[in-house]
Design goal:
406 residues; alpha/beta; Dimethylsulfoxide Reductase, domain 2; 2 domains; binds iron/sulfur cluster
Length: 406
């Protein structure tokens, strides 16, 4: 069996006949995973300094020079990196006495931190497949972002206590601002909310669960939802970026709802994370510092929103982005700020961030060209082997070489 690092489901049941850099035949690979395998020969990053090609050793030295010559360094990204590289990244941040952060500082970091701290109950995807009868996708569209989520785990499959599958045994509830592909599957279980209306929806749901008449237009539908949730035997809330962005830094309403649901029955929370090892970075940093992102090692361990990329770009004078593409996802104003900071980009592929970097350092694609380990979005640790031979360096080796050079 081969492995797919195309998203944080980390599917381990892939059968693929891969010859000459092309897929000849495959089983179980979704369209996103297919593209991930096909990308091995496309848009690969080359070692370069100021746009000129150099050897890998020269690129690593130039990268170390950028980092060592700066006062306020930000090490950012890490979602598409192995656990070993993430661990080395935290050590490098300590050695440089700098800030380390990942995209969760502007997305689902608070939710993940609550899970890791034991404040939100959670479970594994395998528990979901075997036991879950109600899945809530909140600001989350796994049909698009994690194409096998519903078929492997959360809606369509049969499971130990869910032998009748989605036809009779499972409910899908989608709370979103648009009728996404996941919402189309949920059909009547779709609740459309206005952008930023998540807090209001939570209040109405809390009122319903408390036996009150909710202040919403379709009272009957909300009361039915309350009944379904109360009767659930094993519920799960999959949180997506839509929910995180809407709530900003205020999780109080969501925490109350999760608490109330768990007074009535059992409800777990699992964040839908995009990069294959986003959870791994959050866990690695949490184990070392008690925080999942935005940590400064300048004076011991400091943490706060000022050390998240959105704010720290104003203070930093060098940034290294590893396994990530913030230039593509940050708001335009922040992306412009990022473009002005001397940058090292470590990645397997070219992207908008590598295009604006001063130094680029290529790496092998984890799970395909090099083995390693990672945490699935539900926290399960998985190990994977190389699938094809490659001359690219493993990401951990690149980070360790930089550590020696700075
Ligand atoms: S769902 Fe994700 S991990 Fe699974 S095959 Fe698709 S891209 Fe790969």
């Amino acid at each position: 069996m081969a492995f797919c690092t195309g998203c944080s489901l980390l599917c381990d049941d892939i059968e693929v006949d891969f010859q000459g850099g092309k897929i000849k035949k495959t089983m179980n690979l979704c369209r996103k995973g297919h593209a991930h395998y096909d990308s091995l020969g496309v848009d690969r990053l080359a070692p370069a300094v100021d746009g000129s090609s150099v050897g890998i050793d020269e690129a690593v030295s130039a990268a170390a020079e950028v980092l060592a010559g700066a006062e306020n360094v930000l090490l950012f990204g890490w979602g598409n990196s192995t656990l070993a590289a993430q661990g080395a990244g935290v050590k490098l941040a300590k050695k440089l006495g700098c800030v380390i952060d990942d995209p969760s500082s502007y997305s689902q970091g608070l939710i993940t931190e609550k899970i890791l701290a034991g404040d939100f109950p959670t479970c594994t995807f395998d528990d979901v497949r075997n036991f879950a009868d109600v899945s809530i996708y909140w600001g989350d569209d796994p049909s698009s972002s994690h194409p096998r989520h519903m078929s492997r785990f959360s809606y369509f499959p049969r499971g130990e206590k869910r032998q009748r599958g989605y036809e009779e045994d499972r409910e899908a509830i989608v709370i979103d601002v648009r009728k996404s592909p996941t919402a189309q599957i949920a059909a009547d279980g779709f609740f459309k909310i206005l952008p930023g209306g998540d807090g209001e929806f939570m209040e109405a749901l809390m009122a319903t669960l408390g036996g009150k008449i909710p202040k919403v237009e379709d009272k009957k539908k909300m009361l039915n939802l309350g009944t379904k949730l109360r009767k659930a035997k094993f519920g799960v809330i999959f949180t997506g970026p839509g929910l995180a962005h809407s709530l900003g830094g205020d999780l109080a309403g969501f925490a109350s709802l999760v608490g109330r649901l768990n007074e009535l029955t059992r409800f777990s929370v699992i964040p839908s994370l995009s990069d294959y090892n986003s959870r791994g970075f959050n866990q690695t940093l949490f184990d070392k510092t008690g925080h999942v992102n935005g940590v400064s090692f300048k004076n011991g361990v400091d943490h706060g929103p000022e050390f998240g990329i959105a704010k720290y770009l104003d203070a930093c004078d060098a940034v290294m982005v590893v396994g990530s593409d913030p230039a593509a996802v940050l708001p335009g104003t922040l992306a412009k700020k990022l473009a002005k900071v001397p940058m090292v980009a470590v990645n397997s592929f070219k992207n908008l961030t590598t295009d604006i970097a001063k130094v680029t350092v290529p790496t092998a694609v984890a799970g395909l060209e090099v083995g390693g380990s990672a945490l699935r979005a539900d926290g399960l640790r998985v190990e994977f082997d190389a699938f094809v031979e490659s001359d690219y360096l493993p990401d951990v080796e690149v980070v360790e070489r930089m550590m020696e050079a700075v």
